[in-house]
């Protein structure tokens, strides 16, 4: 969903599992879907963990625990590995997450998140461990993600870290622009350049 991104302060959903791959984020059988509706993919985010084989709700999975909620998913190291399916980013965005925090992302998945207006924030393993501990101690604790200043802050401890982001993608997120929108925004400059260099 295209939304301008500035500062987000939210409670978090903890997923302290390492090496979560895109097939776990959105199982391969959903890649045959003919819809691009974010809500469809959001409903099936972590489908095989959220539901038992008989279709009943897995009450032990964090997304089914009403204790946790918010716009920030805090995930373990190496999030989004495996296949390059963009559907995984669609599912994360469709569920309502606007930020995913981890100590490491698979490169293609990281870019897919950015292209779908989800901000992947890379933090140190120490900071990530502190976030998980703070959420466990108080599920209502909040994290502040400040895109303009590129900082993430654990509001429970006051500790902050800087994070990196490509300047172009930062501009697009802050202005709710996808790649086509960006080109259209600069159409006049492109046409002027073409005229001058014909």
UniProtKB/TrEMBL annotation:
Pathway, per record: Amino-acid biosynthesis; L-leucine biosynthesis; L-leucine from 3-methyl-2-oxobutanoate: step 2/4
Signal peptide positions (record): none
Transmembrane segment boundaries: none
GO terms, biological process: L-leucine biosynthetic process
Entry keywords, A to Z: Amino-acid biosynthesis, Branched-chain amino acid biosynthesis, Leucine biosynthesis, Lyase
Tagged with keyword Heme: no
Protein function: Catalyzes the isomerization between 2-isopropylmalate and 3-isopropylmalate, via the formation of 2-isopropylmaleate.
NCBIfam families per record: leuD, PRK01641.1
InterPro entries: 3-IsopropMal_deHydase_ssu, Aconitase/3IPM_dehydase_swvl, AconitaseA/IPMdHydase_ssu_swvl, IPMI_Swivel, LeuD
Protein name: 3-isopropylmalate dehydratase small subunit
GO cellular component: 3-isopropylmalate dehydratase complex
Organism: Paraprevotella clara YIT 11840
Recorded family membership: Belongs to the LeuD family. LeuD type 1 subfamily.
Source organism phylogeny: Bacteria, Pseudomonadati, Bacteroidota, Bacteroidia, Bacteroidales
